[in-house]
Write a structure and sequence with these properties.
alpha/beta, 683 residues, 37% helix, binds magnesium ion, seven-stranded parallel β-sheet, 21 helices, globular, six-stranded parallel β-sheet, binds adenosine-5'-diphosphate
Length: 683
């Protein structure tokens, strides 16, 4: 049997220098080498006629060599080589630099294939530094060529030939890793064929079949690994058993409003987890404004009354402060003590808080990343809540959890993650969903408009602010994304609004580069109604609650992901007033219009997310870059949703019929999963 763990240095073409370069790319073994998949392909299989060439494209031509190579010296010691080739439609000049060994390579009157970048100037057709083959040789041309994700110093040609040699070494000797019945049911290409075809496909259909096989394998492995991780965790780890006699209903009955059915259902699930022996590991998803915070307050109450401390982790100081207020409002009357810990806190105050925490005098500690610092020590940490989870990496979650002994963990997010994705992103968590908004919320009216409406929007804002309301204006910004460099900065825009448009109101701005303290002050002033119009980047995206604000204007809305627009929209409609979301877009593209229409017609975050996923294209699903997602070697969660669904229905069946992968037919799957865990441990 072939040993895939043998070092790549035994492969033909790998000398000491190349070995180092390969290792830099993470290629250590033969197995690494053959699963170093191309990032792209160049189709060098179909020749074009010379008179059909387009300036700037890369193309293949077939031509007869009509002149000898000419040599021109320039710039002291540089040499330019030129040659003319011809087909039945025209002439093309070929140019190389310094490659003098090419001088006698070509014979006048013979036919060759050339592939390279075309340049056409004043009707003169030229190809610079083409690769070539003698007619019929098909070494560098005449086929689809893989392009690998390389760093400098290793050429495409070199890696291609090393991989070719690696493939020769394993030729038809790879053991199949997917059980036969799965290959058949899902129409997957056998491994030996697939590995050859993914690197050197003879056409794109072959390529996509080969790719499908590896994507399927990868997703299936991750999915099964997550499931097994979950069942292992469920069974083996001893958690805290919170007291059944402490009733959540004490808090529930004290609230000025009635919880929704969805909130009650979720609380029941959480209560069940807390009272059970196994540690809670739950993801709570709920649309913006669905009332997740109160759910966490009630859970923390239960922990406190059972003698345990809770840690509540928020992604920003503004949010942490907001939570602090809400938690205190609800829980102070029950004698539960909440404290806040923030990055820029005064040293004396911080010391006091930490001491009290260590002595167990504080029941609930609310904070930002400041919670993660080493000297933050709990006496008896029993519950960890992280809010707006996607801002925290998995590692940070693990870090805070490690401050207790298998505490219960509740992860809350308003990012509506379609179920399919949630299962592969958070497969090791149980999922609860609040799928209902509190009653009497007015539906937010959404208007996508073009820039021509600017005056009318300004008047609309004016009349609302005159009635006592407040408005957000969001624009993308230089600092957050370099691509948006040409956009007016938030500061400039705010000045324009303040000086030219709304001199009678107080306008302020907020962006990511400001000091935390400044941001918090502005936000506080906005909350208190001192500021009426807040111009901002997406820093306000997460969780901020100002019920009096009823207008959200988003400029250049086409640059935001739908899920992100939905989050922004959720900043309004939090009070008793009719609220509006105005999306200003400039693009004329069909997709943009379609996306805007979805925003107008859909107020359910999950549907928005599903549609976003369908339409994606360039729009970023999560808006900002993801943290803590598993990295895939070949699968792309967005393009491969179809395969992901097949994989999930399969793994569900397997989980029901053979959860421990003990059946003979699933032996290979067990090996795949074990291999995966090996990876994890080595990380
Ligand atoms: P999110 O899920 O976006 O974090 P919040 O927890 O901030 O939502 O809740 C938004 C607002 O709704 C808060 O002011 C909260 O007090 C209020 N709220 C929560 N649940 C209910 C309910 N069942 N009925 C009425 N208002 C509620
Ligand atoms: Mg919230």
């Amino acid at each position: 049997m072939i040993d895939l763990n043998q070092s790549v240095q035994f492969i033909k073409g790998v000398g000491p220098n190349n070995l180092v370069l390969l290792q830099k790319l993470g290629i250590n073994t033969l197995g690494d080498l053959i699963t170093f998949f191309p990032r792209n392909y160049e189709d060098r299989s179909k020749p074009k006629k010379i008179n059909e060439l387009i300036d700037g494209e890369e193309a293949l031509i077939e031509g007869i060599c009509v002149t000898q190579m000419t040599e021109t010296r320039f710039a002291r010691n540089k040499i330019m080589l030129k040659m003319l080739v011809r087909d039945d439609t025209g002439d093309c000049v070929l140019t190389w630099f310094n490659q003098t060994y090419l001088k006698n390579k070509f014979k006048v009157g013979e036919k060759y294939q050339f592939y390279g970048k075309v340049s056409i100037k004043y009707g003169r057709i030229e190809m610079v530094r083409p690769v070539f083959d003698k007619n019929g040789l098909n070494k560098n041309t005449g086929k689809i060529i893989p392009i690998y994700p390389l760093t400098y110093n290793l050429s495409q040609n070199k890696i291609r030939s090393i991989i070719e040699n690696g493939l020769k070494a394993v030729l038809d000797k790879l053991p199949e890793t997917i059980p036969d019945y799965i290959l058949k049911t899902y129409n997957l290409v056998e491994i030996n064929k697939a590995i050859k075809q993914i690197h050197f496909p003879s056409d794109f259909e072959e390529y996509s079949k080969a790719r499908r096989r590896f994507v399927f394998e990868e997703l299936l492995t991750v999915q099964l690994a997550l499931l097994s991780l979950k069942s292992r965790y469920d069974k083996e780890v001893d958690g805290i058993k919170f007291d059944k006699d402490v009733k959540m209903s004490d808090v529930i009955n004290s609230l000025p409003f009635r919880l929704t059915k969805a909130q009650l259902k979720v609380l029941e699930e959480i209560d069940g987890d807390m009272e059970s022996n196994k540690p809670m590991n739950r993801l709570l998803q709920g649309d913006v404004g669905s009332g997740k915070t109160i759910v966490s307050i009630i859970a923390a109450y239960k922990a406190a009354k059972c003698g345990y401390q809770s840690a509540i982790m928020a992604p920003t100081a503004i949010l942490a402060e907001q939570h602090m207020q809400e938690f205190s409002n609800v829980l102070n009357k029950f004698g539960v003590r909440c404290e806040l810990i923030l990055g820029g806190m005064r040293a004396k105050k911080r010391r006091e808080v930490l001491e009290d925490l260590k002595e167990g005098k504080i029941d609930i500690l609310i904070g930002t990343h400041a919670l993660l610092v080493e000297d933050v020590e709990f006496k008896k940490l029993g519950l960890v809540v992280t809010d707006e989870q996607h801002r925290f990496g998995v590692r940070q979650r693990a870090n805070i959890v490690s401050k207790g002994m298998n505490p219960d963990v509740l992860v809350m997010t308003a990012t509506p993650i379609p179920r399919t994705l949630a299962i592969i992103l958070y497969g090791d968590l149980d999922i609860s969903i609040i799928d209902e908004l509190p009653p009497n919320r007015k539906k937010i009216e959404t208007y996508p408009v073009t820039k021509n409406y600017e005056r009318r929007i300004e008047e609309f804002i004016r009349s609302n602010v005159n009635q006592g309301r407040q408005a957000y204006i969001v624009c993308p910004l230089v600092e957050e994304n370099e691509e948006f460099e040409n956009f007016k900065s938030v500061v400039e825009l705010a000045e324009k609004y303040q000086n030219d448009i709304f001199p009678e109101f107080k306008v302020a701005y907020l962006h990511g580069k400001m000091k935390q303290k400044e941001k918090d002050e502005i936000m506080q002033d906005f909350k208190n109604g001192i500021i009426q119009i807040l111009v901002s980047t997406t820093v306000i995206e997460v969780g901020v609650n100002v019920p009096n604000a009823n207008i959200m204007v988003v400029q250049n809305a086409e640059h935001f992901g739908l899920a992100q627009l939905h989050q922004l929209r959720g900043r309004v409609g939090r009070g008793e007033y009719q609220s509006y979301c105005i999306l200003i877009y400039e693009s004329n593209s069909k997709t943009t219009k379609e996306r805007m229409k979805i925003m107008k017609n859909t107020d359910n975050g999950f549907i928005v997310a599903e549609k976003d996923l369908e339409l994606r294209g360039s729009g970023e699903f999560f808006g900002t870059r993801q943290h803590g997602l598993p990295e895939f070697k070949i699968a792309n969660l967005f393009e491969d949703v179809g395969i992901l669904k097949e994989v999930q229905s399969l793994s569900q069946k397997i989980e029901e019929s053979d959860p421990k992968l003990e059946k003979e037919e699933n032996t290979k799957l067990r090996e795949l999963v074990e291999e995966k865990f090996k990876d994890r441990i080595s990380i």
